[in-house]
């Protein structure tokens, strides 16, 4: 197994969804590959954090602010070939 193979399987691996034979290969690679260990650690931490936060819905105010921020961003985002090349955050010129 190579690092690429491991990375391709990672999502399933952290979900405990990888076939046992494949899992053994993966862990064998992991044991000898420090970069892959770091990646797996990071993913596990992220998932733990995510799962820990799962029972708590976003506070309504936070959600509203998030939506407002996203909406703002979408409105100012370039809309394809009609978009000018200037930065989308630039205020419109006074006229
Ligand atoms: Zn590796």
Write the layout of secondary structure elements.
Layout lengths: L2 H12 L5 H13 L1 H20 L6 H17 L19
Helix pairs in contact: 1-2, 1-3
The chain binds zinc ion.
Description:
By secondary structure, the protein is mainly alpha-helical. It has one domain: Arc Repressor Mutant, subunit A. Helices cover 65% and strands 0% of the residues. It has 4 helices and no strands. It has helices spanning 3-14, 20-32, 34-53, 60-76. The chain is elongated. The mean pLDDT is 77. It binds zinc ion. Zinc ion is lined by residues 3, 6, 29, 33, 35-36. Residues 3, 6, 29, 33, 35-36 line the site of zinc ion (ZN).
Task: Describe the structure concisely for a colleague.
Helix content is 65%, strand content 0%. It contains 4 helices and no strands. α1 crosses α2 (20-32).
């Amino acid at each position: 197994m190579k690092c690429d193979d491991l990375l391709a399987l990672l999502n399933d691996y952290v979900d405990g969804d990888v076939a046992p034979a494949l899992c053994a290969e993966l862990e064998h690679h992991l044991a000898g590959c420090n970069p892959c260990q770091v990646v797996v650690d990071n993913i596990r931490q992220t998932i733990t954090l995510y799962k820990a936060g799962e029972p708590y819905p976003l506070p309504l105010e936070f959600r509203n602010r998030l939506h407002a921020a996203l909406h703002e961003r979408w409105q100012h985002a370039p809309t394809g070939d009609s978009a000018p090349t200037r930065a989308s955050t630039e205020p419109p010129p006074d006229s």
